[in-house]
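Worked example 4.2. Below are the chains of a multi-component assembly; read each line carefully before continuing.
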Amino acid sequence: MAAPLEILTAPLPAETDPGDIDAYMAGGGYGAVRKALKSMSQTELIEEINASGIKGRGGAGFSTGMKWNLCADRFPRYLCANADESEPGSFKDRHLLEAKPHQIIEGMIITSYALGINLGYIYIRGEFFQIIDQMEAALEDARKHGFLGADILGTGYDLELYVHPGAGAYICGEETGLIESLEGNRPYPRLKPPFFPAAIGLWGQPTIVNNVETMAQIATIVDMGAEAYKQIGSEDDTTGPRLFGLCGHVKKPGIYEYDSDVTLRELIYDAAGGIRDDNRLKGVIPGGISAPILTPEEIDTPMGFGALGKLGSMGGTGGIIVMDETTSMVDALLNASSFAAHESCGQCTPCREGVPWMNDILRRIRNGQGRDEDLDLLLDICKQIHGHTVCVFGQAPGVWPVRTILVKYWPEFRACIERKELVVPPLEESYLRPDQYEHIPPVPGNFRLKTEEADAAG
Amino acid sequence: MATITIDEQQYTVEEGRNLIDAAADLGIDIPHFCYHPGLAPDGNCRMCLTEMEIRPGQFGIVTSCTIRIKDGMNFRFNSPAVLDNRKGIMEFLLINHPLDCPWCDQAGECKLQDHSFDHGRGHSRFVETKRVPPKKDLGPHITLYTTRCILCQRCTRFCDEITGTSELGVVQMGSKSEIATFEGVPLDNRMSANVADICPVGALVTKDFLYKPRIWHYDKVDTLCPGCATGCNTTLEVLHQKIYRTKPRHNEAVNGYWMCDEGRFCYHGWQDADRLQAPLKRVDGELRQVTWPDAMDAAVSGIQAVLAGEGDSAMGVVGSSMATNEENYLLRRLGAEAFGSPRTGLDRKPDGEAWTSKSGFHIDADKTPNTRGARDMLGAGSPEDILRGIGDGTIRGLYVLGGDIGRTLSSEETDAFSKLEFLVVHDVHRSDLAELADVVFPGAIPFEKNGTMTNAQGRVQRLSPAFPPPSGAREDGAILRYVGQRMGVDLGGTDPAGVLEEIAGNVDGYAGLTYDLIGDQGAMTGGEGPSEAAGG
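Applying the procedure described above to all two chains together yields the following structure tokens:
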């Protein structure tokens, strides 16, 4: 049984304000900044991050070291810490922002120093207005203590960090949408390829966009050293501590810190105390609404990005949504789809038209007006959207939940259509077993029924 | 040049060219909505997705509109993935589309119709309720049929990139997105109606053309805009001797893909003018309609009376910047050969307001199309020179090529022209000038002219007539030739191509120019070939 960690969630001294820089420093805070700026070269720092094996915590699990290495050799460069946490089911960034603003600032200072950046932004979801105020105050304190501004700690290195409130849409958290929003435009994601932000980003300059948790982890890596950091978790999957936010039908929802070897079962049944009313599990979304759902048979998986990827799901944001046997999967999917239909930015055709169309069809099914051909139509629309959009929004929250929940809970959707009303069949009859559907790699969420079983089930 | 592979066939195309344009050069159509060659690519419609070899043997989906040709690129335009996507995009674009083709302005020239025919399903799988956002009045010239909009954003990009006025934007998000203006800031710039041209569907329409006859009934005539000295290349859409619409015709060296609103809608002024239906002769102090022979007799005897009087060149001739090079040239010859080397002038109305857009599109202050050409032909002096000549009595008779409906006379001009012993005027309506004349010949408006004009940058371009002049009127070249004949001077044929040949032999800077060389893109004076000047 995995043991909970207290690295990112290490408590501050009792009764101190999380924004209190003195309390943070009393516990060793800003030690990583001193260590990095005073005793490490930029190259050493980048090597240290590379050696730690850290994967970005924004959701895709892309290697942070590799992202940094891709940064074009042009200056000025900019840093954007992405705190536009909007993925349904995710609240770990919010927790960190509330509890450890200074650790995020520390990570940003180290990152900026390592990459020769003199100007950074922390883009905070607009609804987090208290956090925005707290972060502004924390930056001011850091400035007063000489960690920001000109000639930081007497090293001759200059850095300014600014808070930018989010513009109120999910897509503002897409890295190029975020950049457009920072530039004052509608957050329409940019076309990539040909150019990624590390080559042409904010104001046309090389820009690193990293999740705020990644920033906090950078401070941790420098603090404990890459060698110690990569002992946490597994080196061939995901290193370092992870924050998991459990929500839904669990007894103790909240933020839990574990290494990535912890299994989903352990998180649900041990960390979060099991399912409400001791009901049986029906399905669990392992990393925010975009992460393809796992059925009860699949929860003994470790929570590394690689392990979840093998199941056709993904690590995502670590926001775990647990659903018990009373849940209507038709309702759950309609909910997810309504979110995607509302948040589609409208820039490109497949997402703007296809995602709301799927939402309309699902609403019809939920209201007892489903037609026999609707499920195949849904899968066909998924196919027409997938891979054809400007950014991954169309497929991540747009297509993947439909494709996976629909395929895995096919019998429940069929029942709804046949009986022309919303029904929640007994658990055993509501979903397919793993041998009845298949994942087509390498893309997550690319599921299809195995034909004969589909015929039998349908 | 670069060698590329398309569906396993090799082609040589221009390196760095946009893939959609390069394919079009080869006669291959890559369907698209949001890409327009006059605007930066945006990649939002996703219709142009094709497959490109990303790693050896591995193909990936790319937006054709953002691909710049490099040597060795390998594409698949007709793979199942590409064709399936087109079918999918067509379905997505049509699910909320009203399919109101029978009364849509765009029908017949609509990309949605064309691509639906080529790539659509033929039936709809959509049983939900369509979105029905309301129609919007965007500005003085443009209405937005919001239901038809496919949000390709060509219009918003036009206002950002070309005019730099940015009146249009997108409001709301996702499927509720709509093109809109800010409250109280309508789409009102000097090029606003171009958005209707570039709208690939029937969403943006000009109020001017709304509910006019269906577009397939029109004859199309390639000519020039007579609105200013820029000389935008245009295509007129004509039915039953009436112009219904002007559209800019692409000429990279002059106007790019655009034209200004003044020029676009100026045909109304010409077309609605109360045209002269027969020659006029002053009888007992009043202008009366007479027959052509009658008017000719009056003109010739009047001119001869002036010439018979004292002084070397008592006749003056005044060319027109509304007339073609050929007409002005024939006037010069008429003057030189029949009037005894008269003083020449050029009549031009006062300047209007010049404007240059963000992208460099220029609206000239000179509101006449052929000032430069007329000067080249006539070697003309200033209007003041003619007035001075009338004032000091050295000019007692005047032959004026008028024909500008926008021309009004100042009181000095009226006073001067009233002093003339004899005044012959070509005009198209009873202008201030015509009212002072002894003989008025009804001529042609620019839309009825065949010939060439030289724009402000020195580019000689061709006009073609949309229809003949009214039955009582004549082309100005023919009138000049008739007058010459009556005065014993043979001005030769009036076929403009032949006159141009003569011009090429006699006028500085026009050497070597022929109708063929000028073609549909024009040719520079001073010996350059066609389409070589920068600008637009």
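Take a moment to check your reading of the output against the notes. The radius of gyration of chain B is 27 Å. Chain B has 16 helices and 25 strands.
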